[in-house]
Specification:
The protein is α+β, with helices and mostly antiparallel strands and about 120 residues long. The protein is built from five helices and four strands, in the order βαβαββααα. The protein starts with a strand and ends in a 17-residue tail after the last helix.
């Protein structure tokens, strides 16, 4: 794997908007995107407790380190670099998952599902 994969809930309006925005910001083309209920996630997490999680998961290249919830979000910002690195360093902080859980609790209230303008792994 020569890129990092961001797994996300494709049935969540906020998640879809975020993925579309991240794809536009990814100047290095270092990320690929896959739905949590897709075959890529099924294969990667087949024998793992992660298979049933309904949260953002970042599988980082190289090495395959996995980041979950708020740490995944802020780690993505860190990896994007540039202006995003300013916020990205927060992935090291333990409280970011509390922030993420608050947002995640209300994430599906974002109205209709917007179209995705990015290619998804299956």
């Amino acid at each position: 794997m020569k890129y990092s994969i961001i797994f996300f809930d494709q049935h969540c309006p906020l998640c879809r908007r975020t993925i579309t925005y991240l794809a536009k910001q990814d100047q290095k083309k270092q990320f690929r995107f896959a739905p949590l209920d897709g075959t890529t996630a099924e294969k990667m997490f087949m024998n793992s407790h992660l298979r049933n999680l309904n949260t953002v998961i970042l599988v980082e290249h190289p090495g395959g380190k996995m980041w979950l919830r708020g740490r995944a979000v802020f780690r993505v910002l860190w990896l994007l670099g540039g202006k995003w690195k300013f916020l990205g360093w927060l992935y090291k902080m333990p409280f970011v998952d509390l922030f993420y859980k608050f947002i995640a609790k209300h994430r599906k209230r974002g109205g209709d599902l917007p179209p995705l303008s990015v290619h998804l792994l299956p």
